[in-house]
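Sat 14:20. Reprocessing the chain from the morning session after the first attempt stalled halfway. Input below, unchanged.
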Amino acid sequence: MSVSAIRRFTPRTFWTVSLAAAVALGAIVAIPQLLSKHARLEVLRSNVGAIARLAASVVDGDLHRQLLDPANKTPELYARTVEPLVRFHAAYPQIFYVYTMVEREGQTYFVVDTASQSERLKSPYKLVPSEYMEPFKQLDVEPDPDWLQQIASGKTYVYPSFQRDKYGTFLSGHAPIYDSQGRYSGFVGVDFDLQYYLAQEASFRAISIGTLTGAVLLALLIGYVAARYHFDLNDRIEQQYRASIRDELTSLLNRRGALTAVTEALAVRASTYATILVDVDDLKGINDNYGHVIGDELLVSVAEAIRESVRASDICARFGGDEFLIFAAGCDLDAATEIARRILIKVEAKRQTFERRGFGVSIGIDIAPLSEAAFESMYRRADQALYKAKGAGRNRYVISDVGQALA
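Finished this time. Tokens:
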């Protein structure tokens, strides 16, 4: 792995993978938590409904039915009716209020309220009772439009969400009251304290926040690892590609890399293009007489001479075993011959190292204007000029006929 791959990663990949992982992990974490929260609420509503039904069961339905008529109301009848509810209320410290109600022409009225028996009611709250036949004033949560009809039909009704007053947060449940003949005689209301439930939900909320935070951090870690892997993979691919287009001995481009580079260079419009072929004279004889190690050293020396003679933008390649290619965009005949002269001078300077094994290079040059710039044709003409240079005694350059015509 390169140093850049160790220290860097792809931001786009990081954020894309992190976001996808966050969505997936968030769903995995949040959906069960939402479902469990809904389930806990339903269990609570079911529990409040059961308490309301239990409260309704302790009411004497006949006495309550009598009390529904204000003409029958006496302190004794009221006390006898509310007494079992007072005992019930005292047994459940989580209850704010227990009361009974009746519906008249769509309006609900209180009948009995356990808070009115404060001297006998054991409750941790200082409750303010509702008066007999006092109209019920709805709090901040509206019930279903048909809640009274549901109760009258025999169903237990629990408010869909919580209510709040000066005593705290509570959930109300209502259950019908029947007399001994099975006649509907009003209903019981229970306001159940949610302090314990809310404390429990706060704990679950802290857990939820913690797990979601963990999911986000894990998503970022996954994104980082994926981005690092993506960058490293691309870096390795890039390294392999760079290695695949380079000559291992000279580090110049190889034939494959050169052809790709030439194609890209021709796509950039220039006035003229130069193709220069450099061929090591009698490389086979040098290998046979002095060994391939010396031959390789010679090739490296020629590659160095070429690198030192061209412009930074010029394409240099080892095109074959003993052949090198220079392709230069925006290079006229004078510039091309200057490159050739530099190469010959530098190779001559390096001849000292190989004095007993004299060597040289032959060079073929072709120049083409933009309108005639086709690499295959330029290469063929440069190759022909190269063989003319070899035939003329080697260690020299020759310009193709087309190149000379542009002089």
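Confidence is low (pLDDT under 50) at residues 1-6.
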